[in-house]
Input
Amino acid sequence: MPTLHDRESILGIDPGSLVTGWGLVEVDGNHLIHVAHGTIATSSAYTQGARLRRIHQGIQEVLKKFRPSGVSLERVFFARNPASALKLGQARGVALLAAAEHEIAVFEYSAAEIKVAVTGFGQATKQQVQKMITVLLCLRGAVAVDAADALAAAICHIHRRDFSAQARRAAGTCGKVLRWRDYLEIAGKK
Output
């Protein structure tokens, strides 16, 4: 596992059947560095298969160009509309496939975890996430909502990774503690 002193790049992906956002963030020590972000747009005029092909090609281009050390995206959730959930699941599958084809580790977080990582509030609005992304990464101008969500996913992984490393060092257990429950179990044995 990387330490806080390793330079690492994480590609965040916000899958969508019409617009998929992506954002690359590097971490150097305690510094977040914005590398690039964008969207992969498709059209509702195309078949679902054609849209998925376009998303896959777009993610492949980003992976080849930037060669991130990891990919972070939102974990599956249950939507009210089954058809929308199915299309989102297919777009997620394409993102997972692209990462697997490049043998890049994938990290998944809930929407609330991602929002907490960048805003401190698990029920933050898309606009609040968008604003905090510009502040955290010192960006000028507006960032598309889908790209902001992708950058937030990347930042979430960086924060979670750093927290886990710090917790292990603080507990003096070197790799044995990944969650609070693990710490309590180990601490109880001492």
Summary: The first helix runs from residue 48 to 66. The chain is about 50% helix and 20% strand.
